[in-house]
Fold this protein.
Amino acid sequence: MGTSIIALQYVGPGVAEIWPRVEPLIEAGLMAGLGERTVDDIRQAIIEEKSQLFVWRDDRQVHAVLVTAIVQYPQYRSVFVEVMAGRGMLQFMKEYWQPFCLWAEANGAKVLEGATQPTVTRLLKRVGMRKVYDTVRYSLERPNVCS
C-alpha cells in the first residue's frame, strides 16, 4: 500500500469533518442494497448515535468503512453490520477484525451479524462468520402484487 495504516478509527456523532471522505464509500456500499436506506439516512443515524461508523484510513486516504448498529433482541445484544465498503477489505479484516470484535463485546454484544451479498458473505466466512439465513423479499408495489 505504501503508507502506514493509522488505525481503525471510531467516528461518533461529530462525523461532519470526515463525511466528505467516507460518503462515496458508504454510497457504493449501499448500491448493492434494495434502497432500504440512503446515504443521508446513514449519516443521520450516526449523528443520532443509532449507528456507528468505523473508518480504516492512513494519513492520505480512507481505505474502507464499516457502519454498524447495535441491536437489542429479547435474549441478547447483537452488532449488525449495515455497510462494509472500500478497498483492501481482506487486509482490513485480517488487521482489524479482532479489535472490532473486542469493541462489540465491550458493548455487550453476543454476536455479530449482517445481511450481505454473496461476495461479502464469502469474505466474512474467512473470519469465522457463517451463513445462517437466506433473506427473501416480495414487492407489494405494482406490478408485482399478490393477486
Notes: The longest strand covers residues 62-72. The longest helix spans residues 89-106.
